[in-house]
Write a structure and sequence with these properties.
By secondary structure, this protein is an alpha+beta fold. The chain has 22 helices and 11 strands.
Length: 451
């Protein structure tokens, strides 16, 4: 049975605050959405700790995946209507690629775990590898549905995720500098955080997009819409994704899981009275796909509530800081003032805080736009514009705005520490001289050399 054979007699419509409607017209797509593996994404926040900074950011990876599917569906419709292939190898759109493109778009994030990036750092998981495993493992509901199309179909979809699928038009739909993934999360995250930074003219960007040999390009008349998209993306990273409070809560979460992992791996040092059975495979380093798929944000939050009452002071305190939103303070530093970090950690330790769990450095940088460099470990697919004579030109060669930010990293380096180090006590405080000395190194949100 082919993908086309399972077209629905009547469209299924999901109401969506970003795209208005997400239209499903195929039983394969609908059945994938209804699998336990995909429904789990309802229980995983798209932005993790960002909801502790922007309270509206409670949206899930489920909604994002539907949105990416919808954008990919509109791309396919646009390409088939305006740029259908006439002869093999003409560089236009072959609509036989639609099933793989739509399925890969829908499933591209199905391997994300709870608080995924922090979880991956502690337990050495990889959401892209797990996404491919969910798609290709005969044990999953997702795989069984995909095999209704053909025995090869699951592996073809997985190859889009790891960028090895031979048709680069399909790969760039899902993963490029202007792809369905980014186009959805910018608008969706802007909407739910209550900000305007990520808003751009999605309809215009889709309208000027067209297939070419070995990828996707844009009509030069739409250059300004693409510029707007790139600047919107830059602003979202600087203002939302790199927000210091969100990063601070990530540090607390990271150190909370790190402390829990240490305690359960060293029972001779400390024997916890509570066993988090669903996390034990990860503490032990031997987990199955089913173990992974059993986790979501709610599971971790339940364990945090238990750890809040732990007999281990560090675990208990970090759990309370995370649950009650008590972020660490952070200040900026550079290469010169980085030499002062050991002194600051020493003062923090003297004040009674274990610097392994109560301090951290974090560097968050993003390239707003980067041209293709084959020497890079993961070379970017550059954005190309189609001129009136049909020739291609790379975006930064004709856009002075994009040229001004090309290859320039934007972001900062921050040192995180307990906010208590900045307190001013009215009564007698045994640690006040240490606080006073520490504060000499902090000025205008920067680490400085005391005079």
């Amino acid at each position: 049975m082919s993908f086309k054979d399972e077209d629905l007699p009547k469209e299924k419509v999901f109401r969506d605050p970003i795209h208005g409607h997400v239209i499903v017209d195929n039983q394969i797509i609908l059945d994938l959405i209804n699998t336990p593996e995909f429904q789990r994404l309802r229980r995983i926040k798209q932005l993790g700790t960002t909801s502790l900074t922007f309270h509206g950011a409670e949206h899930s990876r489920f909604g994002h995946c539907l949105g990416v599917y919808e954008i990919a569906r509109r791309m396919c419709n646009h390409f088939q209507r305006n740029y259908p292939s006439k002869t093999p190898g003409d560089g236009l759109w072959n609509d036989n690629e639609r099933p793989i493109a739509l399925t890969a778009a829908l499933l591209h994030d199905i391997g994300h775990g709870p608080y995924s990036h922090t979880f991956e750092h502690i337990f050495h998981t990889n959401h892209e590898a797990i996404t491919r495993q969910i798609i290709t493992s005969p044990e999953t509901n997702v795989n069984r549905i995909l095999r209704r199309v053909s025995p090869e179909f699951p592996q073809q979809v997985a190859s889009v995720i790891d960028h090895t699928y031979p048709n680069q038009q399909v790969v760039q739909m899902i993963s490029s500098q202007v792809d369905a993934d980014r186009m959805d999360y910018l608008q969706r995250d802007a909407y739910y955080t209550g900000t305007n930074y990520g808003k751009y003219d999605l309809d215009r960007v889709l309208r000027v997009m067209r297939p070419i040999k070995n990828g996707i390009a844009f009509e030069i008349s739409g250059m300004h819409a693409v510029e707007d998209y790139i600047i919107s993306r830059l602003q979202m990273y600087l203002q939302i994704y790199f927000h210091p409070v969100s990063r601070s809560m990530e540090v607390i979460l990271d150190h909370l899981l790190m402390r829990a992992k240490y305690l359960y791996q060293h029972p001779n040092d400390y024997s916890p009275v509570f066993t988090p059975h669903m996390l034990m495979p990860f503490f032990n380093g031997h987990y199955t796909l089913n173990d992974y798929l059993s986790l979501d944000d709610g599971v971790l939050t339940t364990y945090f509530l238990h750890w809040r009452d732990s007999g281990d002071d560090i675990l208990s305190d970090l759990a309370q800081r995370f649950l009650n939103r008590r972020p660490l303070k952070s200040v900026l530093y550079d290469e010169q003032t980085a030499t002062l970090l050991p002194k600051l950690r020493d003062l923090i330790s003297t004040a009674g805080f274990n610097d392994q769990y109560y301090t951290a450095t974090n560097s968050s940088y993003k390239l707003p736009y980067d041209t293709y460099n084959p020497k890079d470990s993961q070379p970017q697919s550059q954005i190309e514009l189609i001129q009136k004579n049909g020739e291609l030109v790379e975006l930064s060669e004709v856009s002075t705005l994009v040229a001004s930010i090309t290859g320039r990293e934007a972001g900062d380096k921050r040192f995180f520490f307990p906010k208590e180090m900045l307190v001013q006590q009215d009564d007698i405080e045994i640690f006040q001289p240490i606080y006073d000395e520490f504060q000499q190194y902090i000025q205008n949100n920067h680490i400085v050399q005391p005079r």
